[in-house]
Design brief:
Helix content is 44%, strand content 18%. It has a seven-stranded mixed β-sheet with strand order 3-2-1-4-6-5-7, with helices on both faces. It is built from eight helices and seven strands, in the order E-H-E-H-E-H-E-H-E-H-E-H-H-E-H. The protein has one domain: Spore Coat Polysaccharide Biosynthesis Protein SpsA, Chain A (Alpha-Beta Complex), CATH 3.90.550.
Length: 239
């Protein structure tokens, strides 16, 4: 029996070369894995044809919604918009740069209901560029050491119950929101399953390039690390 329903939040900034295949993969996996779904695309101030492509898909599929920011607000802010709009039992963020194939998403969704939440990690880190492997592994090690955890990855797919996701107070508006969301779930005592994911690097001339390492995003992540440390410390002191 298929799990009840899922809200898929898809932030996208200038993804005209990737957004169509991403929508196709997400819709295919959702239709096979859930009895009901909605796809909430957050156009984060794109200046290319990203919103037009999404709008064309909306005309064919009423389950697709489009929210457009007049200027980029960053990925954490997009998640906040999406979770407020979400109506289904579960919710997950899938970026608009086609990070996963349809079969990978189906495999991930097959674990729904086996724990309070699901979190994905890179199945084969060697598929990433050398720089991204170093930075990502360093980020994970720092957080694990600081928070006294043993998570495999903090920036992967996370699937939560929508009711809980809406109740969490998140401060990060950038890439740090994923680690903040994950820690909040752990501090709430939520049980989880870590699932290996065959992520796909951004195709084309931007292959291996990530928006996460832009100066403003790095600053946002550093601020988030500080908040996570303080949040984790306060929780430990009350135990």
């Amino acid at each position: 029996m298929k799990p009840s329903s899922i809200s898929i939040i898809m932030p996208a900034l200038n993804e005209e070369g990737n957004i169509q295949i991403t929508i196709d993969n997400v819709v295919s996996a959702a239709e096979k894995s859930f009895s009901e779904y909605e796809l909430i695309v957050i156009n984060d101030g794109s200046t290319d044809r990203t919103p037009e492509i999404v709008q064309e898909n909306r005309q064919r599929n009423p389950r697709i919604q489009l929210i457009s920011n007049t200027a980029p607000c960053n990925i954490g802010a997009c998640y906040d918009l999406g979770r407020k709009r979400a109506r289904m039992k579960y919710c997950v963020v899938i970026h608009g740069d086609n990070p996963c194939s349809a079969s990978t998403l189906e495999a991930f969704f097959s674990h729904v209901g086996q724990a309070d939440f699901l979190c994905g990690y890179w199945k084969d880190p060697k598929e990433r560029t050398h720089l991204r492997r170093i930075l990502s592994s360093s980020y994970t090690r720092v957080l694990n050491l600081m928070l006294r955890r043993k998570m495999k990855y903090y920036n992967g797919l996370q699937l939560h119950k929508t009711e809980w996701a809406k109740s969490v107070e998140l401060k990060s508006t950038g890439f740090g929101y994923q680690a903040e969301l994950l820690l909040q779930a752990l501090l709430d005592g939520k049980k989880y399953i870590e699932i290996p994911i065959a992520y796909v690097e951004r195709p084309g001339p931007d292959s291996g390039v990530t928006k996460a390492f832009r100066p403003n995003n790095i600053a946002n992540v550093l601020k988030t690390i500080g908040r996570l440390y303080a949040l984790n410390k306060r929780k430990q002191e009350t135990v």
